TrEMBL record:
Pfam families: HTH_21 (PF13276), rve_3 (PF13683). This is Putative transposase. Residues 64-225 form the Integrase catalytic domain. It comes from Fuerstiella marisgermanici. Transmembrane segments: none annotated. It comes from the Bacteria. NCBIfam families: transpos_IS3.
């Protein structure tokens, strides 16, 4: 257990319990909690920001995702290398499955770079019905607007100054910051790119997600039909999801 705690310092006892079971240890949550307390282990609590609800029709709590590939959410996150060079991450998440479907880092990411990433995603996963974002210049660029219209993807722009309306993206970004950017140091863009790939794999394939009954996003997504498949007659699958 302590080895897993050292490997995942931001995981609480519930996620550690899930990882132990995955490695075929016969444990229950109460026993892991007792051991956790005995060792004096703690995870520093994040300070929660006050959230508004807003009234935008495009907010995630109003226009909810109905299934896999229904709504993707995208955003940008910034950090620095050890020598002070600014880095920019493009994050794209599937709101229903919580998968991080794209995580790209570069010194600069422009509209054409965003389009290239979306083309790669669509080639691998199919076309989403909607994509949610704020009103940042990259997202409202004419080139992206034309591309979205051409591919039949509806853009859901949230209200300015209302990040909670893009809550699934904000939730992922907070985990990216807390469990990756605040933990790792990047000596170069190449170093950051490799470590980013490793984090994305761990997030999708290893990290148990509390909103998915402690399944990983990949485990949950594997049994979910695409929402477009439902529109052609596939039986719907229901699952209660939250925004954390």
């Amino acid at each position: 257990m302590l080895e897993l705690v050292r490997e995942h310092p931001r995981f609480g006892y519930r996620r550690i319990c899930r990882l132990l079971r995955r490695e075929e240890f016969v444990v229950n949550r109460k026993r892991v909690y007792r051991l956790w307390r005995r060792e004096g282990l703690k995870v520093r609590r994040r300070t929660k920001k006050r959230r508004g609800t807003g009234g935008s029709k495009n907010a995630c709590h109003v226009h909810r995702s109905r299934g896999k590939n229904d709504v993707w959410a995208w955003d940008f996150v910034f950090d620095y290398t050890t020598n002070g060079t600014q880095l920019k991450w493009l994050t794209v998440v599937d709101e229903f499955t919580r998968e991080c479907v794209a995580l790209k880092v570069s010194r600069s990411i422009k509209a054409d770079d965003v389009i290239d990433t979306l083309c790669e995603l669509i080639a691998a996963r199919g076309v989403p019905n909607h994509i949610r974002s704020d009103n940042g210049p990259e997202f409202i660029a004419k080139a992206i607007g034309k591309w979205l219209n051409k591919t039949g993807v509806s853009a859901l722009y949230v209200e300015p100054g209302s990040p909670w309306q893009n809550g699934y993206s904000e939730s992922f970004n907070s985990k990216l910051r807390d469990e990756f950017l605040n933990v790792e140091e990047f000596d170069s863009i190449r170093d950051a790119a490799q470590m980013t790939k490793n984090f994305q794999r761990q997030y999708n394939e290893v990290r148990p997600h509390s909103a998915l009954a402690y399944q990983t996003p990949n485990e949950f997504a594997a049994v979910q039909p695409s929402v477009r498949a439902r529109q052609t007659g596939a039986a719907p699958t229901t699952f209660a999801i939250t925004s954390t």
